[in-house]
């Protein structure tokens, strides 16, 4: 768009300059023609003046010749006199011709002709007297000089006409000069205009070309300093440009590859196929890589192979089709990917190790524990008669600690199993599951457990959901500090989640403990007083979070506690993990 | 046990676990003898030996050195020993689903977790004895 505007502006500027120059030329031409006309007129006027002079002097000559003839009777002077009169006639005729075009001047000619005619008639008259009445009569005539008055008038008329001619000439010259001056100032103005417009044009073109040069330099700088290799090829696959990053990437200098086929930058089999790809694209438009990008392998000058991502775009410059390839070195990324793959592998191994650890714990830790338990039992029974009360108490304590450690190991195993092994996900009807859990927990007589149904069906792992309710209701029962109590299980619709609650009227939990209780092995009462592994709530949190929900507690000490957890209505998020058969 | 003539084959590497089994059987007045071997390989050797008496029950631990319980079960299958007629009860610490599935796929008659408490252990052995006292076995 801008290109077009510039071009039309330059064109308009040139057109203006040419018009101005044409006008200047036309003006000059006209001025020259005027000048020539004026010059001719001047020359003509000069001649007319001379002719007028000649008429007058010839008249004088004619008179002189006639007088000499009359006085001396020399006939050759009569001849001269006749000849001179003829020349007078000739000059008058010439004058008529010369001034015929000018009505103002030619108006005076008849008077001139009349005066010449009168004067000549007088001369003729004297001559006639001489011929008819003899020499003496002629001389008298001469002495009377009858033509003197006419001659004076003729002279005056000639002077008058000369004056007229000169005035006319001057007037014309003045007009011509004024015209020339006007034309010249006009031409000067136009020339200034032409110079100004050409200067503006020059500045415009210079700015344009500088802009263009700047643009090109900027583009070249961008291409040269680009971190990615940029290679341009023509429709035959010949390299047209090769930037510095491409030089670094392939190890070739640009001068080595420009003009050569781009296929030298590819390993086989691409090298032999590339011309075919290009031809097919040009023939059929079937693109393998143009317009999209993909990962390819490049061949360096030293024969090394480099992974690169290649994006090719097509550029049409008039009838020419160019292809620009942008090459990004993937070596680092590949290395990073390998490193990542290795790390993932290590992580996988570590995970496997952890799984095995749980397995090892279950086998190898339990066997000695069981042995300790059995031996304590056998000691108590086999040596009952040799043990005092203290010894029996010690053995009982030992057995109870064995039982606790067994529970802890089971807790660890259970906790590690959640999320590691994915159970079947099904729609679990909580309206049947929760009463089952309550029934299993067998609340004591004074404690009332209310399930405020209907509870929804949720998608999840049945066993895990059962564990959640079992632990929450179980905790409420376990920590109840009085014989009577009320535990309430409820559910609320919370948009895309269900919000469940298990609330009790037990001792409640102090705010400072409310986050800690969800951590593994955190218990608030000594284990001697309340047998607890500290796994239950950690397990609940892990299960709920794996099901895409969250769990929290609201409690005022002394007024009971309410445990809340949410479950997504659309089911738990997908996750990896082995599926249990 | 239905018959007192045939021994119980106990495959167990842990000495105290073996003691627990024999002691509980003694406490339950089970008259059958107990043949104790320490791993699957020894158990296979016992079963292949023509001199040894065919057991009426095999109590099998899973996690043992040299040859574990699962491997023992596979071996007995591929060796063509007619083990199907001898009930195998797995006595193990493993709660792994994988172990349970494999054991039953290999035809065990029962899968029991060894309780830590000795009293519970005795209860478990009592149940096993009671069951195989009632259940008939092929000769």
UniProtKB/TrEMBL annotation, chain A:
The keyword Kinase applies. InterPro entries: BphY/WalK/GraS-like (IPR050351), CHASE3 (IPR007891), HATPase_C_sf (IPR036890), HATPase_dom (IPR003594), His_kinase_dom (IPR005467), HisK_dim/P_dom (IPR003661), HisK_dim/P_sf (IPR036097), PAS (IPR000014). Residues 292-342 form the PAC domain. GO terms for molecular function: ATP binding; phosphorelay response regulator activity; phosphorelay sensor kinase activity; protein kinase activator activity. It is an enzyme of class 2 (transferase). Putative oxygen sensor; modulates the activity of FixJ, a transcriptional activator of nitrogen fixation fixK gene. FixL probably acts as a kinase that phosphorylates FixJ. This is Sensor protein FixL. It comes from Thioalkalivibrio denitrificans.
TrEMBL record, chain B:
Residues 7-129 form the Response regulatory domain. The modification 4-aspartylphosphate is found at residue 61. Keywords: Phosphoprotein. GO terms for biological process: phosphorelay signal transduction system. Pfam families: Response_reg. SUPFAM superfamilies: CheY-like. This is Two-component system response regulator.
């Amino acid at each position: 768009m801008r290109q077009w505007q510039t071009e039309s502006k330059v064109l308009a500027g040139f057109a203006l300059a040419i018009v101005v120059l044409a006008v200047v030329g036309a003006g000059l031409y006209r001025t020259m023609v005027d000048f020539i006309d004026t010059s001719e007129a001047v020359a003509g006027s000069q001649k007319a003046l001379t002719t007028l002079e000649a008429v007058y002097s010839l008249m004088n000559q004619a008179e002189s010749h006639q007088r000499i003839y009359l006085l001396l009777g020399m006939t050759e002077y009569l001849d001269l006199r006749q000849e001179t009169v003829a020349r007078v006639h000739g000059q008058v005729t010439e004058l008529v011709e010369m001034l015929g075009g000018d009505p103002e001047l030619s108006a005076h000619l008849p008077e001139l002709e009349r005066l010449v005619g009168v004067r000549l008639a007088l001369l003729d008259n004297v001559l006639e007297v001489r011929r008819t009445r003899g020499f003496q009569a002629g001389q008298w005539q001469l002495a009377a000089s009858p033509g003197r008055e006419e001659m004076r008038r003729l002279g005056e008329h000639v002077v008058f006409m000369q004056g007229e001619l000169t005035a006319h000439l001057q007037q014309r010259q003045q007009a011509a000069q004024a015209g020339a001056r006007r034309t010249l100032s006009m031409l000067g103005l136009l020339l200034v205009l032409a110079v100004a417009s050409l200067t503006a044009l020059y500045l415009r073109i210079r700015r344009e070309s500088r802009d263009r040069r700047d643009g090109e330099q900027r583009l070249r700088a961008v291409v040269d300093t680009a971190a990615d290799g940029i290679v341009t090829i023509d429709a035959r696959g010949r390299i047209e440009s090769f930037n510095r990053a491409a030089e670094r990437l392939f190890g070739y200098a640009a001068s080595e590859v420009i003009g050569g086929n781009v296929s030298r930058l590819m390993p086989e089999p691409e090298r032999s196929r590339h011309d075919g790809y290009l031809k097919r694209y040009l023939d059929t438009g079937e693109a393998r890589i143009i317009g999209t990008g993909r990962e390819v392998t490049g061949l360096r000058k030293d024969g090394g192979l480099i992974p690169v991502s290649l994006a090719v775009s097509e550029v049409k410059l008039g009838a020419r089709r160019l292809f620009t390839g942008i090459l990004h070195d993937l070596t680092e990324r590949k290395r990073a990917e390998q490193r990542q793959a290795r790390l993932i592998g290590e992580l996988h191994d570590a995970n496997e190790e952890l799984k095995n650890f749980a397995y090892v714990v279950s086998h190898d830790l339990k066997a000695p524990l069981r042995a300790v338990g059995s031996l304590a039992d056998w000691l108590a029974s086999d040596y009952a008669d040799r043990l005092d009360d203290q010894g029996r108490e010690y053995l009982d304590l030992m057995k109870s600690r064995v039982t606790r450690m067994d529970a802890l190991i089971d807790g660890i195993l259970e906790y590690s199993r959640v999320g590691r092994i994915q159970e079947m996900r099904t729609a679990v009807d909580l309206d049947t599951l929760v009463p089952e859990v309550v029934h299993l927990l067998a609340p004591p007589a004074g404690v009332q457990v209310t399930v405020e149904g209907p509870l929804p069906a949720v998608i999840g792992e049945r066993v895990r959901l059962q564990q959640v309710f079992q632990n929450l209701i179980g905790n409420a029962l376990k920590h109840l500090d009085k014989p009577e109590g009320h535990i309430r299980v409820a559910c609320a619709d919370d948009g895309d989640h269900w919000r469940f609650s298990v609330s009790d009227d037990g001792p409640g939990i102090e705010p400072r403990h409310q986050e800690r209780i969800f951590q593994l092995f955190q218990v608030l009462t000594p284990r001697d007083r309340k047998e607890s592994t500290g796994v239950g709530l950690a397990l609940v949190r892990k299960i709920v979070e794996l099901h895409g929900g969250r769990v929290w507690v609201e409690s005022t000490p002394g007024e009971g506690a309410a445990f809340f957890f949410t479950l997504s209505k659309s089911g738990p998020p997908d996750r990896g993990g082995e599926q249990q058969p | 046990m239905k018959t007192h003539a045939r021994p119980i084959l106990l495959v167990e590497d842990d000495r105290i676990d073996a003691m627990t089994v024999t002691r509980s059987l003694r406490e339950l007045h089970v008259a059958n003898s107990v043949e104790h071997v320490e791993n699957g390989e020894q158990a296979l050797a016992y079963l292949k030996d023509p001199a040894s008496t065919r057991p009426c029950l095999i109590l099998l631990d899973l996690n043992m050195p040299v040859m574990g319980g699962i491997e023992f079960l596979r071996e007995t299958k591929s060796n063509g020993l007619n083990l199907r007629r001898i009930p195998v009860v797995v006595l193990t610490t493993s709660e792994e689903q994988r172990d349970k599935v494999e054991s039953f796929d290999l035809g065990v008659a029962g899968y029991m977790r060894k309780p830590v408490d000795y009293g519970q252990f005795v209860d478990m052995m009592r149940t096993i004895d009671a069951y195989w006292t009632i259940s008939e076995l092929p000769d």
